[in-house]
Amino acid sequence: MAELALTADRREELAGLLGDEQRLRAEYPKVAEYLDTAPMLPGTGDDRADAAFDLRLVHYMTGGPSTSANPYWDIVGPSVSERDGRRVVDGGRPRGSARLGFAQTILQAAYAYAIPSPETVAWMHQFCNGRSVVELGACRGYWAAQLASAGLNVAAYDSEPPDQSDNPSFTRAEGQADVWLSVGDLGQFAARSLGSADEVLFLCWPPG
């Protein structure tokens, strides 16, 4: 597993942030919550891998959009394994760890429930073959943003867009985006003019 390469300036930024607890809690409360709780939870048994995961989480969740085009994947990607034909975030352990399970709650609330790997986004782009995409249940619009970055025309909608309403699953917090792409509500979806019959309807939910 390749280690995260940080510039000297970025290491200095992170050291300053982590060394100022008050600032960390004010600017990135969800990161602070993770760092408070994670050490009390069982990890994967590989201390080096757990520390690398923590570093990725802190780096990408505090680095802003210039740090990564797909921060969710960059955080969890090195911890993904294939089990029974599915890719799961388990850190190389069939049952994962409580620490990764807790991280999942933080990451899902910040990004999305399902994780958009680059391969999946590329497959979507190929499948759509230039057709526009309509996503329902877009939540923060993270998947929609990934698809748009891949060159697709995407219209995203949700019953409770997190930047327009109090969505209990995607609450607002300092240091994280309310939405990653414009997300309309169901009223806007109902009022939209009919598009081409060849539009692609995208419904994304993790396997349970």
Question: How would you explain this protein's 3D organization?
Answer:
- The protein has helices spanning 8-18, 21-27, 29-37, 47-62, 71-76, 98-110, 118-128, 142-149, 186-191, and strands at 80-83, 86-89, 133-136, 154-157, 183-184, 200-202.
- Helix 2 packs across helix 3 (29-37) and helix 3 (29-37) runs antiparallel to helix 6.
- The mean pLDDT is 93.
- The chain has a 4-stranded parallel sheet with strand order 5-4-3-6. Strands 1-2 form a two-stranded antiparallel sheet.
- With 208 residues, the protein is an alpha/beta fold.
- Strand 1 (80-83) and strand 2 (86-89) form a beta hairpin.
What is the gist of this entry?
The protein has 208 residues and is of the alpha/beta class.
Question: Any descriptors?
Answer:
single chain, 208 residues, alpha/beta, 4-stranded parallel β-sheet, 9 helices
Mean pLDDT over all positions: 93
Number of helical segments with 4 or more residues = 9
Q: What is the helical fraction, as a range of percent?
A: 40-55%
- The arrangement of helices and strands along the chain is HHHHHEEHHEHEEHE
Helix/strand/pairing class, anyone?
alpha/beta
What Rg, in angstroms, do the CA atoms define?
18 Å
Secondary structure tally: strands: 6
Q: Percent of residues in beta strands?
A: 5-15%
| Low-confidence sequence ranges | none
User: Cα distance, first to last residue?
Assistant: 28 Å
Largest sheet: 4 strands, parallel
Q: Please give the order of strands in the largest beta sheet.
A: 5-4-3-6
C-alpha geometry: globular
